[in-house]
Design a protein that fits this description.
It is globular, with a radius of gyration of 15 Å. The chain has helices at about 1-25, 115-130, and strands spanning about 45-50, 55-60, 75-80, 85-90, 95. Strands 1-2-3-4-5 form a 5-stranded antiparallel beta sheet. Helix content is about 30%, strand content about 20%. A hairpin with a 3-residue loop joins strand 1 (about 45-50) and strand 2. The protein has one domain (about 1-130). The chain is built from 2 helices and 5 strands.
């Protein structure tokens, strides 16, 4: 069963990479990006680190002032260009997700928290694709 979970995770990582590259094709070309959507809902993509085979990006969708108390969705993602996968490193100040947690646990994390945050990344990126958000890349200052 754990092997199937590993295969499922690899599939999620691959789909997330595909979605991210569809939204930001210049990411693999070495550009540092600032990403904007349309209207009041935007997603900002910021390159935090760039290495030979990986890029670490932060995605953040600022919320309207009326919702600011809950905090803007913020996610850090490592993109492996050679393996063509993308994996969530952190979400809302939670880091280093384990593949499985006992439940209940002190942090009230889901049993499969790592899978859940990576599935959420996929849903978030898919939403951006469906909404036909045009992300434009420009050099960061």
């Amino acid at each position: 069963m754990e092997i199937l979970n590993g295969v499922a995770m690899a599939s999620i990582y691959e789909r997330n990479f595909g979605r991210l590259m569809a939204l930001l094709p210049s990411l693999a070309e070495g550009e540092s990006c600032t990403t904007l959507g349309r209207g009041t809902r935007r997603v900002r993509v910021e390159v935090l680190e760039r290495h030979k085979f990986t890029t670490i990006v932060r995605l953040c969708e600022p919320l309207p002032v009326s919702l600011a108390i809950i905090g803007a969705p913020t996610m850090t993602v490592r993109v492996y260009h050679d393996a063509e996968v993308a994996e969530v490193l952190s979400y809302q100040n939670q880091r280093r997700f384990q593949p499985k947690y006992d439940y209940p646990n002190a942090d009230m994390l889901q049993v499969r928290e790592k899978r859940r945050v990576n599935e959420f990344l996929g849903e978030w990126l898919e939403f951006c694709l469906v909404q036909s958000r045009v992300f434009s890349a420009s050099a960061l200052l």
